[in-house]
Write a structure and sequence with these properties.
mainly beta, 2 domains, five-stranded antiparallel beta sheet, three-stranded antiparallel beta sheet, 2 helices, 11 strands, rod-shaped
């Protein structure tokens, strides 16, 4: 079920068009009319009411409401580590006291972490203590750019992700006669 909070409604569409709702004035409730002369009250058991920025007040049966325009609450952004782990199909773990994303690419396991300088670093997991990590120079918030750069580095610079060589004894990378 989709939920729209009344305080998030910014406009309503009625038969005559859209109406701007003054912030915080949209409400749902029964509406009862009293004639004031002793006559019986009339009622809309399911109704809505709101005020416009011009100060006009509206009330109507809920069935007359065609649509609402509402403000979607800000979604909390997942931590960058969680987003990277999801995109890389990896896992978040702690290595040497640092939150790290560990993932597999082309049968090699890699670690990805935010370095002391505030930029992402990655290296093959087995070589983390003996090899210099690649520093991406991208900040924590640049997850899509990091993914593109890192995967390009993995595929081209390190030569990983290449299909295994054919087992027929020939060098398939050698220049072919034209």
């Amino acid at each position: 079920m989709m939920r729209v909070r009344c305080d998030q409604v910014r406009a309503v569409q009625l038969a005559d068009g859209w109406h701007t709702v003054e912030h915080g004035t949209f409400r749902l409730d029964a509406v009862q009319f009293d004639t004031g002369d002793g006559g019986g009250p009339a009622e809309w058991p399911q109704a809505f009411a709101f005020e416009t920025p011009d100060g006009d007040s509206f009330a109507a049966p809920l069935a007359s409401l065609l649509a609402v325009n509402y403000q979607v609450p800000d979604k909390p952004q997942p931590p960058a580590y969680e987003e990277l782990a999801r995109r890389l199909r990896g896992q978040v773990l702690t290595v040497d006291g640092t939150s790290t994303v560990r993932f597999t690419h082309a049968d090699h396991e890699f670690d990805l972490w935010l370095g002391d300088s505030g930029t992402w670093r990655f290296v093959e997991s087995a070589k983390r203590t003996t090899s210099t990590a690649v520093d991406t120079y991208l900040t924590e918030s640049e997850v899509p750019a990091l993914m593109r750069q890192m995967m390009a580095d993995l595929k081209s610079t390190w030569g990983l992700g290449r299909p295994p060589a054919a087992q027929d004894g020939r060098d398939h990378d050698a220049a072919r006669p034209v």
